[in-house]
Amino acid sequence: MIAPSILSADFARLGEEITSVAGEGDNRADWVHVDVMDGHFVPNLTIGLPVVRSLLTTSDVPLDCHLMIEDPDRWAPGYAESGAYNVTVHAEAARDPIMLAKNLRAAGSRAGLSVKPKTPLEDYVEILKHYDTLLVMSVEPGFGGQSFIPEVLDKVRTARRLVDTGHLRLLVEIDGGINNDTIEQAAEAGVDCFVAGTAVYGADDPGKAVAALREQAASAAGCRHGAQGAQDGNG
Ligand SMILES: O=C(CO)[C@H](O)[C@H](O)COP(=O)(O)O
Ligand SMILES: [Fe+2]
User: Fold this and answer.
1) The pTM is what?
2) Alpha helices in 91-152 (DSSP H)
């Protein structure tokens, strides 16, 4: 799955920018990723709930809201109530992540938990049993256009193993520095959903960029399955 991040889009034309990846066929995004930043949890400020509510009316592509905010326990359920498909909060910011996941699901969205590059996954494995998505940050949250941090792929591999062995039931999502040079290693590590800002909205044709990234990820993931099959004696 490909989730273009509108952080790299033209903020004066957000509706059109979403529509450009909301067509039919291969050029259609699976989700559109919306980065909400409060200037406190991260040193940058973007948009909040009123803008997200408007964006929800611009297309039928599900919105994936990534909340880089303090006190998500208080603010995140409002995004779910408004119709966001997936609402992700930061593990480092949530006070009661299990209750928060329950509140998000009760309000009608999927619940996502994100970890910054230096946050270990081990501390959150039990909590992740209450979540639908794990968002592994592959840059320090706050800005688009940064370089991919390959070390976070160990967390992707661990999460993939936990899902494949039935210990967790969630989608593994990655965010930061995903482009045609980095998507294959992320796919091989076991990512299900790839957020890409600069690589999609920096391209001449965002829809074509979505299709190209998806194809690259699918063929790299195919190689991973092939290698796994051979290891299991099925290949
Ligand atoms: O959460 C984010 C930054 O905090 C963005 O989603 C992310 O950086 C996407 O942009 P790019 O693909 O350009 O790295
Ligand atoms: Fe993000």
Assistant:
1) 0.96
2) 97-106
